[in-house]
Amino acid sequence: MSRQQPNPGGSRAYEKPLPRITPDNRPHWEAARRHELALPRCDECQKFHWTPGPVCPFCFSDNLTWAAVSGRGTVSTYVVYHRSWFSSYQDDLPYAVVQVELEEGPRLTSSLVDIPNEEISIGMPVEVCFDDVTEEITLPKFKRRGSS
Q1: In whole angstroms, what is the distance from residue 112 CA to residue 122 CA?
Q2: I want to staple 76 with a disulfide (CB 3.0 to 4.6 A). Which of 8, 41, 58, 101 is the partner?
């Protein structure tokens, strides 16, 4: 993970860990910059999957296409951290990390926006939103479904 990227519109650099862009995941991050959620889908079995790789994890076909997904899902599990494993998260304690099961099937690890830790529950309906943390990186996060 890279760090210390410029934060557009902000006076300080973004200091939290950032994803490493690779040839396998680049389409996901390019879509996120456009505020779209895209995942690889197998052209043979039609299943979406995450994380990206050279073949479908279900049928092993290498015939894959990147496609937009709904961004809707439910919290399948979560953890609330009371200790900062990265010093850049110290001011966020306690903070939650969630796993969201998308309607299309794959599960993404992310964070929630504007939901107090006490209100998080397994099965909570959520939808994607986007956080433009640097000029190059936009992070998909999730908010309560139907909130503005």
Answers
A1: 13
A2: 101
